[in-house]
Input
Amino acid sequence: MTDLASFPELLAGYFEIPIDEPGAKAVSDPYGSVRVDVGVIRQEVRSPGYLVSGLVYDVSTGLVESVVAPTQVPTG
Output
């Protein structure tokens, strides 16, 4: 996705959002993007008992880093 950051029209189509909003998806920042995605999941998934976390995998080093600690999805 980071390679597509300079093509907002493609990203807008992919995310189905207005062309001036791809920055809100933080596509050029893997850590920010994971935080955004976890926030969306926490808002959309309302199933008690699920834990949601966010991880970033570094393809260069093979390391996985926790960006968002596991927390239970709120109900309601």
Observations:
- The longest strand covers residues 64-72.
- The two ends are 33 Å apart (CA to CA).
- The CA atoms of residues 3 and 33 lie 14 Å apart.
